[in-house]
Design goal:
Keywords: Membrane, Signal, Transmembrane, Transmembrane helix. It is a single chain. The chain has 590 residues and is an alpha+beta fold. It folds into 4 domains: 22-122, Immunoglobulin-like, CATH 2.60.40; 132-270, Sandwich (Immunoglobulin-like), CATH 2.60.40; 287-397, Immunoglobulin-like (Sandwich); 477-588, Four Helix Bundle (Hemerythrin (Met), subunit A). The chain contains 9 helices and 31 strands. The strands form 9 sheets. Strands 11, 12, 15, 16 and 17 form a 5-stranded antiparallel β-sheet that branches.
Amino acid sequence: MKLIKNISIIGFILFASITSAQVKFEAKVSKKKLGLNERLRIDFEMNQDGDNFEPPSFADFDVVGGPNTSVSNYSRNGHRSYNKTYTYFLAPKKKGKFTIKQATIEIDGETYKTFPITIEVTKAVKKPNGNTAASDMAEENIHLVAEISNTNPYLNEAITVVYKLYVSEEIGVSSNWREKEIPRYNDFWSQNIDIKGLNILEGEYKGKNYRYVILRKTVLYPQKTGQLKIEPLVMDITAEVRSNKFDIFGRRLVTKVPKEVTAGSRTINVKPLPENGKPSDFKGAVGNFSFKVTTSKTQLTASESLQAKIEVTGKGNLKLFELPKLTVPSSLEVYEPEHKENIRTNTSGMQGSIADTYTIVPQYRGKYPVPSISFSYFDPEKETYNRISSDEIIIDVIEGPTAGNSNSEKVTASTKQNISTNTNTFAFIKTTSNWTNIKTEPFFKSTAFWSLTLLPFLAIPLAIVVRRQKDKRDADVDGNRIRKADRLAKKYLGEAKKAMGQKESFYLALEKALHNYLKAKLNIETSDFNKEKIENLLAERQVEMPVIEDFISILENCELARYTPITQVTMQNDFDKAAKTISLIDKQLR
C-alpha cells in the first residue's frame, strides 16, 4: 500500500513538471463583438521566447496601433515564470463577421500556431470601447483642426490650409499615429509646403490652453467658381489617459484609448472674377505683379541676333497663366521663346518671376519698331483690374542688305531701257522629231506575263508565314504590353531627348511629358496634379509603391533641377529613369 502511494506521488510530480514545461502560444482579443467605431485589441501571448513571429493577415481591419511588445520574466521560490506578448490595435473596415486567422512562431525549432478567432462587427455604438471615462476624456481633449486662411476667395486667388492637432495638457498621444485618409483637393491647383520636424507649440483652442503640432500645410488655387469641397484629413491615434491607479513605484498608470480624429470636410465659396472693367487682353493672372519688356541690344548689324525678354514678377498664380506674345515686323526673324520660371511657394502662395525670351535675327538694314505690349491682371486685395504697358522699342539695324521693296521704289525713268522685239519669238519650239520604230513582242506568254500570273501563288506561303507570326505576336500578351509601354515612353519623352544638354528646356520637356502621360492614362486635368492625388490614383490602379515613388521623385527632380546645377550625366540618368518608370506603370496599370 505504501509502495502504491509513493508511485502515485512520483507520478504526480512528473505530471506537474511536464505540464509546467508545456509551450503555450495563444491569441486573446478584448472582445468578440464590437461596434464599427470601436477598436479591437488582440494579444499574442507565449510562455517561452521564440523567433520568426508571423502575425495573421488583418485584411478586414486597419492596424491603428502596434505591434507593441511586452516581456515579463521573474522567479519566485525557485519557480521561473516567463511571458511575452505582441499587441495590436485594430479598427474594423465594415460590418459583418470576420475571422482572424492563425499567427505562427518558432520555439525551440518547433512551429506553433494560434487558433482562428471570429469577430462580429455591428453598427457604430454611442460609447465606444466601454471605458467611458477614458474615451470621453480623449474625445474632449484631442482635436484635429483645418485652419483655412480665406473661405471666400476669388477664382485663382491663393488660400492656405494648415492642419493642426491640438492635445490638452491633461492627456498624451503615443507616437504610433498615422494618416488614415489623406485630403483630396478636387478643382484646386495644390502644393504641399514641407514641414521640417513636428515642433510642439502652445496655443489656444476655443478659449482653452493646448499643446499642438502642425501636421500639414497646403497652398491651394481654386480653378472653378462656386461651392468647392475640401475632403477631410482623418487620423488614427492612441490617446494616453492618466488613471487614478498607481504602480508599485508610485507612478500613475495610463489607459491607452485608440481614437479616430478628423478635421472634417470644409467648403470654400469661390467668387468669379468681376466682368465689369475686365480688359480685353486679360488671360487669368490674379495677384500683384510688375511687367517689363527688355532687349539685350537695340543697335546691331544684319545677321546678328538679339534677345527680347517678356517678364512678369510678383506674387500670385504665376504657373497658371500665359505671358503675352511678342509681335515684331515681318523683316525680323523670330524664334520660339525659351520659357523660364523662378518661383518659390510658401504659405502665402507663389512668388517669383516667369519670363519668355525670344531670339530675333534681322534680315535687312533699317529701323524696326517693337510695338508696345500690355499685360493685365486682377488684384484680389484691391478688387480691381490693372494693365501695364511696355514702351515701344526701336531696333536699329545699321549694316546689311537693303530690302528688295526699297530698291524697287528708287527705280527712275532715266534707268528704263527700250526692249527690242524679236521676230523669231517661238524659235525654241521644236517642230521635227527623230522617233524610230520599236519592235515589240506580244505580252501574252511573255516572261512578264508568267511572272505576274505566278506571283499570287508564290505569295500565299509568305502570307501564311506572316499571318502565323502576327498571331503569335498577338497572343504574346506580356510581350505586347512591354512593346506598347516602350512605344509610349518614347512618344512622351521624345521632346525631352531632343533637349538633352539644355537644363531648363530638358526638365521643362520632361515634366510636360510626365504630365501628358498622366492626362492620357488617368484622365485627369492639369489643375488636379498634386503628388498626393497622383500617388492615390496610381495605387488604386494597382501600380506598385516603389514605381509610384520613382515617378514622384522624378517630378520633384524636375522642380528642383531648374534652380540647381545639373550635369549631362544627371540628365541622362533622369531620362532613363523616367522612361523605365513610364514603361513599368503602363505594364502595371489595371
